[in-house]
Amino acid sequence: MAELLEHLKPLVGEEHIAVREGVVVVSPKNTSEVAAVLGFADRHGVKVRPVGGRTKLGWGAACEAQIELSLLRLNRVVDHPWQDLTCTVQAGCTWQALEDTLARHGQFVALDALWPEKATVGGVCATNDSGALRHRYGSLRDQVLGMTIVLADGTIAKTGGRVVKNVAGYDLPKLMVGSMGTLAVITEVTFRLYSLPLHSRSFTVAADTAAKLAPLMQAIRDSHLAVQVLQMRGDASGFALDVEINAHPDAGQDAMLAEIVVKNGLSLQPGFWLYAERDKLWEHERLILKATIRPNDLASYAQEIVDKDGSFVAQSIGIVYAAFARDETTVRLAEEFRYHLDLQGGTSTVLKGNSEMDPVVGMSNIGPLMQAIKVQFDANNTLNPLVNQTSSQPAI
Ligand SMILES: Cc1cc2nc3c(=O)[nH]c(=O)nc-3n(C[C@H](O)[C@H](O)[C@H](O)COP(=O)(O)OP(=O)(O)OC[C@H]3O[C@@H](n4cnc5c(N)ncnc54)[C@H](O)[C@@H]3O)c2cc1C
């Protein structure tokens, strides 16, 4: 450890190195320093975990790293040419700081991040999350135009561009989004932007079974309504469908929505806090699963979750967050859900579980492909190695 500290001091300065729980936390100030640290680690067999706001380190590949590479000093919005509807931001900038800057020109990155005051741009990209806005704007991969990344051996690469139709060749940012810090360290991201919605209104439709909401969800999807959010949620008290419309009130869309709801034998109420519904799942110590399924299977899956005493929030495109009590049946429950999802062609991930759980559940059939890509980007397995691949001793 002492030797490692001595090697790192000239790369980032002594005051930007700390030791936390046996791990050396290094805080570089720019892309070049990130490259210097990675190049050193890669040459000496030292394992590195990139870290942003630390809100989500338990999710995905649990790795034993000797260095935590903190991106928190790379925290600037680099450029916001608002007339071009793009913005370039450093990876350690919090989502909230980014949103605040963009809002000054009435713009935003169309993604609703959880805990935006802590989560960083790099962490949000590395974990590929999205919330209710995904229904209207697509996934994070659709929002990213370009990136600066540092490969495991310290090579700096700029990939993608700053215009919506940018480069020929491979679209590497799409690979980086969701790579969980295993392929490269993201240091800068260029996003496409949208105007903040001016005329949003939220509504909720309640029902005692998920099956009653399924045809309504389908009818809304098939309609010409300007729907921004279509979210189902449920617990022991019942089920609800949240709908957010983004159209000028004079367009009469509220009345059109009400008509569709009534045709389906249900009634429309004003809705509140629909973006906060996901956060509530984390309010208690519970098992949390994320599942991706076919939209058509959503209602039956939702009903199964509630029948097993769980609660859930799901996007109509088929992304489900489910929470269950954490007790001795937890592991069995997760395995049961994984089994059902395998049959239906879906996947599931344990976001918050207990120590007996494999964090990435249901990914076995894509493992070899991911391994092959990992070897191409990180031959020495330096970045966020899986536990069973970590070499026990660094070479210094
Ligand atoms: C359970 C859960 C559900 C979430 N759901 C949503 C959602 O629905 N919508 C949404 O928008 N957000 C969602 N989030 C994202 C949330 O905003 C996270 O806080 C964010 O993704 C993580 O950012 P962080 O800076 O805390 O990253 P960290 O927790 O510090 O790191 C997360 C992972 O990213 C890697 N990493 C971090 N920075 C970099 C970098 N610069 N380069 C390469 N790898 C890096 C780390 O090594 C680690 O593997 C969710 C988070 C959690 C925990």
Topology:
Blueprint: H1 2-12, E1 17-20, E2 23-26, H2 31-44, E3 48-51, E4 67-70, E5 77-79, E6 86-90, H3 95-103, E7 107-108, H4 121-127, H5 134-137, E8 144-151, E9 156-160, H6 172-176, E10 184-192, E11 194-195, E12 200-207, H7 210-222, E13 227-235, E14 238-246, H8 253-263, E15 268-270, H9 277-280, E16 286-292, H10 298-307, E17 311-315, E18 319-325, H11 330-344, E19 347-352, H12 367-377
Parallel strand pairs: 2-4, 3-4
Antiparallel strand pairs: 1-2, 5-6, 6-10, 7-11, 8-9, 8-10, 12-14, 12-15, 13-14, 13-17, 16-18, 16-19, 17-18
The structure holds flavin-adenine dinucleotide.
Residues 49-57, 59-60, 71, 91, 111-115, 118-120, 122-124, 126-127, 129-131, 180-181, 185-186, 278, 351, 384 line the site of flavin-adenine dinucleotide (FAD).
Query: Tell me about the biggest sheet?
Result: 8 strands, antiparallel
Write down the overall geometry.
Answer: globular
Helix content range of the residues, please?
25-40%
State the distance separating the first and last CA atoms. Answer: 9 Å
Structure classification: alpha+beta
Report the uncertain regions: 360-365, 387-395
Count of β-strands = 19
Q: What is the percentage of strand-forming residues?
A: 25-35%
Ligand species: flavin-adenine dinucleotide
Radius of gyration over all CA atoms, rounded: 22 Å
In DSSP terms (H or I, runs of 4 or more residues), the helix count works out at 12
Whole-number average pLDDT? Answer: 87
The strand line-up of the biggest sheet is 15-12-14-13-17-18-16-19
